[in-house]
């Protein structure tokens, strides 16, 4: 796998979202969202946010890190929902990931970043990822790159259009329902409405660089 490309994909997936002012009643009490009939509980979302805040507060740049992540709950929910869309696209296309691929990719990330501590610092500072969430970043990269390879997607307007259509269709099939306090999900863009996270437009892929095997 082209490791630098994969890490760039992670950055795109975890881009910050702007503040949200919309609100409304809970369609599903206690749920931040319902994806494919399965709940993403507010408590699960809060746990992810808590992990990031704890890591930020232990940094000498705590104030800057907190400010840079903006509306962290909405940002994290964005990613939690998107991961479920990725899982559906992978399942629909027979794409799986092995433990060896995950270990290989994480090792490459650590090497390119200059060590485990440096990787954790960069992901926390630039993407609002807590140390315990790094494996999720790795898994997302491997799956998305393998999906792109399986679909024959290239880094062209046509390839990006095809990828967007596939993810949009999967998103619609999951009937994603978001608690109004976090906004509304946009199936066409595969992200929370008004989010600036360019999920698919930023995906660049060299199919030949993806490890063989599904």
Written overview of the protein:
The protein is mainly α. The protein contains eight helices and five strands; from the N terminus they run H-E-E-H-H-H-H-H-H-H-E-E-E. It has a three-stranded antiparallel β-sheet with strand order 2-1-3. A two-stranded antiparallel sheet has the order 4-5. The longest helix has 21 residues, at 72-92. The two termini are 14 Å apart. Mean pLDDT is 81; it is low at 1-26 and 201-214.
Any key phrases for this structure?
214 residues; mainly alpha; three-stranded antiparallel β-sheet; 5 strands; 55% helix; disordered N terminus
Instruction: Tell me the β content.
Output: 5-15%
Number of strands: 5
The value of Rg in angstroms is 17 Å
Largest sheet: 3 strands, antiparallel
How is this structure best summarized?
The protein has 214 residues and is mainly α.
Give the helix/strand layout:
Elements: H1 3-13, E1 31-35, E2 38-41, H2 42-57, H3 62-69, H4 72-92, H5 99-113, H6 116-127, H7 134-151, H8 157-173, E3 177-178, E4 185-186, E5 191-192
Antiparallel strand pairs: 1-2, 1-3, 4-5
């Amino acid at each position: 796998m082209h490791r630098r490309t994969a890490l760039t994909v992670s950055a795109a997936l975890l881009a910050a979202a702007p503040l949200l002012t919309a609100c409304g009643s809970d369609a599903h009490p206690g749920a931040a969202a319902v994806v494919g009939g399965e709940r993403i509980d507010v408590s699960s979302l809060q746990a992810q946010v808590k992990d990031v805040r704890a890591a930020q507060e232990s940094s000498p740049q705590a104030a800057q890190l907190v400010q840079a992540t903006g509306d962290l709950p909405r940002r994290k929910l964005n990613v939690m929902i998107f991961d479920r869309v990725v899982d559906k696209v992978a399942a629909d296309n027979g794409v799986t990931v092995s433990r060896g691929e995950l270990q290989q990719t994480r090792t490459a990330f650590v090497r390119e970043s200059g060590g485990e501590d440096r990787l954790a610092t960069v992901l926390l500072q630039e993407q609002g990822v807590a140390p315990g969430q790094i494996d999720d970043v790795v898994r997302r990269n491997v799956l998305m790159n393998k999906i792109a390879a399986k679909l024959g997607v290239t880094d062209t307007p046509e390839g990006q259009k095809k990828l967007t259509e596939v993810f949009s269709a999967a998103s619609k099939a999951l009937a994603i329902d978001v608690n109004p306090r976090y906004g509304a999900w946009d199936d066409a863009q595969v992200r929370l409405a008004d989010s600036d996270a360019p999920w698919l437009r930023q995906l660049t892929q060299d199919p030949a660089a993806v490890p063989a095997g599904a």
